[in-house]
């Protein structure tokens, strides 16, 4: 039995932040990773998708600016930069880095065998603290034939260096929307089949409809309320997707983007009492899942984002080190990196209604309210909506669909996190001219008037 102060199972962004902090605290740490240190985010999700999206975004941006032409696309160069960003799917530098910092690195599948006990390959580890950061898996919907047609998940889609001539994207959430726009802008014929009534269904309908218009401008076909019944390979090697209304869509490739589920199987969480009734990780506000076991990141199912995984790792390690603070998820930014970006934070209108929060809202069309959309591009665009709790006067939700919205939504995030009432925000806000942040002034003024009514 090998003894350690702490063991981290799964080395995606959540595991890496936890491990780094535990090492910094002087602990003897063992990290276990069955695939690549850096996780889904580093190789098959955030990093490759955002790297490639930037290429097509910059190209489209140039076309929208007066006096510029659409630059030529060097796809080979774009893919090789993507490959450099994902380290050629090689984590040997990360392995060496953790070893140099004094950690024990085990490349292999690990699972809890009991309180303070972990098995990794044929090694038995005794660990005072265990942090589980095993991420999530894509969910394949129950559609006849879906496992037999060589469908892509995000793994194949983000690492491909060959483009199909046509692509059906099943699911219109963040993964489906981002990758649909990427491939459409790389001149692939793209059709999204989405079961919801609007894209990115977690957000307000108005936001989802603006995303739909943006994708339609790029030539993406969108089937809403689409129910796929079966999928098969045709004689000419294409993929045929039959919908419940009997329509058949055909394309060279199918990308399944219908959601992700916490990766709890085989981790042994049940052996330490860390799995709740529904098979989900039980978690308190310090990310404790059981005595001396913490869980962070996608495996918790709280909010499937890298920044949440990293935040939960900070929460968990602070608890381990004895200066804990409670996790607060009220102000988690949610950015879909399509063009223009959809950025949201706090509650949507639906969530506010579910929670019984009486909200007032203000919506601002950016080109009618501020100058920045015109200095930014020839065809100005964008909208922002703010939601405030009528009773407390605090900002509780916001979304914007506009260039760079993923950056300037953080002002709303800070206001929501800090519980700033709208009048105080208005008094404190003096935004630079001409910026997108200026849109907060008319929106907050409208909110203040609505609260006062
Ligand atoms: C296409 C796509 C794009 C995305 N873009 C963004 C984005 O732009 N911004 C954002 O915030 N989020 C984005 N996400 C979500 C983001 O990728 C995840 O929220 C993030 O990776 C979660 O980090 P994690 O550490 O919890 O898990 P992961 O990154 O999944 O890492 C978990 C690690 O645990 C390992 N592991 C699992 N089980 C075991 C075991 N038993 N033993 C040892 N190791 C194990 C896995 O191999 C993996 O390396 C995107 C997701 C997708 C699919
Ligand atoms: N920019 C980012 O931060 C970013 C980008 C990508 C993914 N992510 C994260 O990854 C997670 C997974 O994203 P996702 O887009 O795969 O999942 P999702 O659950 O957010 O969206 C999937 C969508 O697919 C639809 N759907 C489900 N089954 C379907 C079916 N059979 N046919 C058609 N449509 C169907 C659902 O209505 C749902 O809206 C998200 O929670 C998100 O937080 C984040």
UniProtKB/TrEMBL annotation:
Pfam families tied to this protein: Pyr_redox_2, Pyr_redox_dim
SUPFAM superfamilies: FAD/NAD(P)-binding domain, FAD/NAD-linked reductases, dimerisation (C-terminal) domain
Binding residues for NAD(+): 171-178, 259
Domain of life: Bacteria
Domain FAD/NAD(P)-binding stretches: 5-313
Record text on cofactor binding: Binds 1 FAD per subunit.
Signal peptide positions on this chain: none
Name the UniProt record assigns to this protein: Dihydrolipoamide dehydrogenase
